Amino acid sequence: MESRGLDSVVYVGRTPARSIATAFADAGVELTPAPDLAAALDATERAPVDCLLFADAHGGIARVRRRGYSGPAVAVVDPDGPIPDDTGFDAVVPADAPNRLLARTRDVVEEHRLDAERRAGRRRVAALERVREAADGSELVETLPSIVADAYRSAWLGRHDPEADTLEPVAATGVAASVGAPDHRSVGSDGDHLRHRGRRINHQREEVDPGSVRSERCRKLGKQGETQSEQTYWIK
Questions:
Q1: Dihedral angle, C-alpha 113, 100, 34, 64, nearest 10 °
Q2: If DSSP codes are grouped into helix, strand and coil, which group holds residue 33?
Q3: Partners of residue 161 on adjacent β-strands
Q4: C-alpha to C-alpha distance for 123 and 120, rounded to whole angstroms
Q5: What is the DSSP string of 79-95?
């Protein structure tokens, strides 16, 4: 997964030391002070926040977790003070090491993103396995949209019409089908790929794009006796 970098953090508690504020500003990272936990949570709800930095290592990380915050959290501690034993933190960094704090914050943010990507990948692989286990075309029509929608947030299933070279939608679910710029996503399992490409659907059908990819695992899941065109399902 390509790194998105570090954009925005919230400093919970007292105003951050000038050295910390300078280090983050020089790196192009927005550092927002929050005097208390309520202000910090409000900040996470108003705009995307990459990480919470806690000036008080004993100041309520458990409460923030209970309120639903699951992102990275770093404790900024007095170098001569005790090390917090709260397992809610991803890292503990002394306040007199601003560059180390910046680097460690980047690390924990990237670790969280990679972990989220791995979880999403496992969900997509599980979705593919459920597609492969579909007994026939009818079951595929009933099952696939909900599977793919869970992984990709929207889905529709089309049957290829070779004469018109179009995809005739037979099932759909999730967000509206009209989309903007093409969105390419793929996940592999033993060389099999399911690619989701967003396009604008016009008048309930879509022209087949040479770059679109059908799931080879789904090609022959039609009912016995159906024609090849009826057996070929394209997953969009």
A1: 50
A2: strand
A3: 166
A4: 5
A5: TTSPPP--TT-SEEEET
Q: Write down the residue that tokens 């159906």 correspond to.
A: 226
pLDDT at 191: 30
The length of the chain, given as a count of residues: 236
Rounded CA gap, 75 and 95, in Å?
Answer: 9
- Amino acid found at 64: V
Structural tokens at position 195: 């690619």
> Which residues of the chain fall below pLDDT 70?
1-3, 59, 84-87, 134-138, 140-141, 143-156, 171-236
d(CA 143, CA 15): 53
For residue 101, which of 129, 65, 77, 132 has the smallest C-alpha distance? 77
Q: Mention every residue, 6+ apart, whose C-beta is less than 8 A from residue 19.
A: 96, 98
Residue ranges covered by each domain of the chain: 8-120, 133-235
pLDDT of residue 1: 43
Q: Return the CATH architecture of domain 8-120.
A: 3-Layer(aba) Sandwich (3.40)
